[in-house]
Amino acid sequence: MLNYNQVIKKEKSYQGLQMNEIRPVMKLIVRGKSREFLSAIGKSLNMVLPTKSNTSTQSEKLTALWLSPDEWMIFSNGVVEENTNTYDTEIILNKNICKLNLGAIIDVTDQYVRIILKGDKIFDLFQTGSPFNFNEFRNKIGSVTQTIIAKIDVIIHNQNQNEVNLFVRRSFSEHLFSWMNDSASRL
Amino acid sequence: MFLINCPFCGEREQSEFKAGGEAHIERPKQPTELSDDEWAEFLFMRKNIKGVQFERWNHAHGCRKWFNIARDTSNDQIKAVYKMGEKPPVK
Prior knowledge:
The structure holds 2 protein chains of 2 kinds.
Chain A: E1 12-14, E2 17-21, E3 27-31, H1 35-45, E4 56-58, E5 62-68, E6 71-76, H2 88-98, E7 104-107, E8 112-118, H3 122-127, E9 144-149, E10 152-160, E11 163-169, H4 170-184
Antiparallel strand pairs in A: 1-2, 2-8, 3-6, 3-7, 4-5, 5-6, 8-11, 9-10, 10-11
Helix pairs in contact in A: 1-2
Chain B: E1 3-6, E2 10-13, E3 18-22, H1 36-44, E4 52-58, E5 66-72, E6 77-83
Antiparallel strand pairs in B: 1-2, 3-4, 4-5, 5-6
């Protein structure tokens, strides 16, 4: 991870809602279409990429989110070493995917901020600023969506009961976090 | 405001999408042989009818994929959604 100033410094707690950033987390965008690409990813990472829309798959160390029919985000479940920009997963994928022209791997570790939200008021908070219908989403563990919150593009991953990952671009993260705090204080 | 059924993500609100204008306009095969009027026709002239119109839309804040819809411009009812490269459904 590059030496950025951390924007979200403190965990914030409200009744039924806690928010904080988890860092540093490795994040990769993988793109590809062919069957060979999917099986090469499966063999390299020992996990299957989700092919069904709005879903995710998880292995011991990694989680893969469906973003579009030919695009996925892979992120590390735990935190990684802070003082490096090379990740084993990326090296393996570069070797097995990019070098063989099967697809593309992009490191977006520093581009996205992973905010974790916990509590039973998460979706009440989202509903104050998003056009997305969370009624089905909230009951399906592992579901993923890309939508807008307060006009900001976000990726939302329903990780567990009352536990949601939110990915937002770094340049928008400070504004979104302060917006969410403002909104959460009025729930 | 209306809902659009993205062929990849499912039903989403219109504000997640960007409209991409009229669909099924073919680029001329021999652009160098076109007169100015024919160029203008290709570049600028759109039907803009009242009724069912075929349009391109992009799920800009979702999967970022392009697709076509048949939309009734008088009441925003969406008659059909179909992927790029597919033929428009018969009315």
